[in-house]
Amino acid sequence: MRAWVLAAAVAFVGFGARAEAQELTPERAAFRAIYEELVEIDTSPSTGSCTRAAEAMLVHLRNAGFSEADAQVIVPDGAPGDGNLVAQIRGTSRQRALLLLAHIDVVDARREDWERDPFTLYEENGFFYGRGTADDKAMAAVFVDMLVRMRRENYRPRRTIRMALTCGEETSNRVNGVDYLLRNHRQWLQADFAINEGAGGILGANGPVALNVQAGEKIHQVMTLTVTNPGGHSSRPVPDNAIYRLSNGLTRLAAYQFPVELNPVTRAFFERMAPIVGGEMGTAMSALARNPNDAAAAARVAQDPSFNAMMRTTCVATELDAGHAANALPQRAMATLSCRVLQGHTPEEVQAELQRAVGDAQIEVGIVRRRDGSSPPALTREIMGPVERAAARLWPNTPIVPTMTVGATDGRFLNNAGIPTYGMSGMFSLPGEGNAHGLNEKIRVQSVFEGREFLESIVRDYAR
Questions:
Q1: Contact, 20 vs 445, CB < 8 A?
Q2: What pTM was estimated for this model as a whole?
Q3: pLDDT digits (tens, 9 = 90+) for 409-431
Q4: 22, 40, 73, 340: which has the fewest Cβ within 10 Å?
């Protein structure tokens, strides 16, 4: 854990306690009820149903006056549990639209592993606990609550506001809702740009440290390294052993680093985060932003795994499979690589780079899952203006720091479809404290309510 994170963790103990003291107004209570209902519907792939959650949220929209033409659940053929909720408030300018995107599926959670029932919303010590509280049902509940109130007040925006709560973001064994809707019901997603998960805010010693806006993300490519060999009897070992050859290639790969590449978003991230991080690391980040070819600065920044992942493509071995019998020389040895590829590079380019890195023509580099990348969307004044105005009101003097997600979201589908997608929730946390995908997932109560206010502010600003 970085020193500045440690300081934040020590000094920010009281943040959550203030949240519990906040007044639960009728509007906030109604939102909290939607949030609670959504968290408590199991939408995990093993035991849950996205369709059930989508239908429950549709009830709120129907009760607010949304017709079938403006709100419906779309279930992919052959996947009855993978339903998606789509809705819209029609604008006076029918040619312009904003999309609000959140996924309602969650990763599996076993009750015996958790301190609390993962599919019950608990509010304790200034935190909401439960699977999906942070990833991504807080944003989904905010969007449903927002559309309900807008409909009831007969809100007429200039820009059409569309919402999609989708399934299949978390796992590959479900139908990905965004991909499915783009292919089969694109009219529900068509927009000038979209707001999605991908960034919140960073808490520090004296309050909010930085409000992040995510623009662009890495592309996940699965690759393999494979060695094949005639094998033979293990009583007669030979120098050319498939396992040894693969191991030597992996050793060379472990020492290899892809080149440093900064785009406008990551350059701005290092530039603006440098004074916040401070110290030797902050100095190195500033130097790297000025000159990406500064080898000394890059080496220092690379010591932080999160920063390293933001400035270069990474490929890491995650699985091994070798041999077929205890008394036989291996005929095959294979390693699976998880590659997080910077936008602008094809899988074939990564494949060729890996072949050079392993330095052995007998190690075949294969592309298991091919995904096309896209360019990072531009942080224009149209996008940043509402963010700056809302931030100035809610968190005065807090810097806005562009960032790139080193993982992946459903924004990859929208960006490839020509719909620029930005991650912004306005929900602050200490780095890593939410433990999304892990045990006892949580999010600060104050962060949820402040994020709700932030998101509504920017949506109304974009829509008018």
A1: yes
A2: 0.89
A3: 999 899 999 999 999 999 999 98
A4: 22
